[in-house]
Design brief:
Residues 96-116 are annotated as: Disordered. One of its GO terms (biological process) is Rho protein signal transduction. Belongs to the EPS8 family. Pfam families: SAM_3 (PF18016), SH3_1 (PF00018). The chain is of the alpha+beta class and 239 residues long. Among the domains are: 11-63, Roll (SH3 type barrels), CATH 2.30.30; 155-234, DNA polymerase, domain 1, CATH 1.10.150. Helix content is 45%, strand content 10%. It contains eight helices and five strands, in the order βββββαααααααα. The protein has helices spanning 73-77, 96-129, 155-164, 169-175, 180-184, 188-195, 199-216, 219-238, and strands at residues 11-14, 33-38, 43-47, 53-57, 61-63. The chain has a five-stranded antiparallel beta sheet, with no helix packed on it. A hairpin with a 4-residue loop joins β2 and β3 (43-47). The radius of gyration is 50 Å and the shape is rod-shaped.
Amino acid sequence: MFESSNTEPKCVKIRYDFVARNSNELTVQKGEVLEVLNSEKQWWLVRNRSTHTGYVPCNVLEELKAGETQYNRAEFFNSQAVNPYKATSPPALINHTENVEMNKSSRDKDNRTQQKEVNDELLKRITDSKAQPPARNFRVEHPIRTLPITYDSQPFEICGWLNAKGFSRPVVDCLGILTGAQLFSLSKDELKAVCGDEGSRVYSQISVQKAQIERSYGNSELEEIMKRRQREVDAFTWD
């Protein structure tokens, strides 16, 4: 803290910018030279070259060294005198970091306002354009639904089922003449002998169909159907 003198007023130079928050404080800029009117507390009462007075925190002040030529003391002290006690009482001391945060908050608010204006303009252009949605250049493939085969299925139904499952033409021609009961009666080895490499896949698909039938009918009813169809197959073979 600087010692007061009755012969020559003290002057200080501003180290950091400070923005006043109320009428008791004084806004100053870095490098500005001020006259000290009261330095008894943490906030000093100072006067600038425009004869404006107010409180500034002492931690943003720096003593003006003797011999500095960038400031004309005579010109400053010959300016119109003002009441050094214009400000009523010093506010609570704030540090330089708080002052920087206040300035940053003000800049952030301006940036948000500008961004909102840009967003509003963009939304208006999109709304006014009334652009139609782009044409769809792709085709949606819908899966082909196939009816399950049963013991009562006719040869044309067996043929359609085999085609829907993607079996080759020779397999369709070979098995497409059978009824559902006849197809279900074939074993895996018999299918492999007739259909070659596709025999295992045919047997797998037939097993899936049998499982669906078992879920639809009770075991006793299914056994009765299988016995009846087996008798029909046997009768067809003897004929």
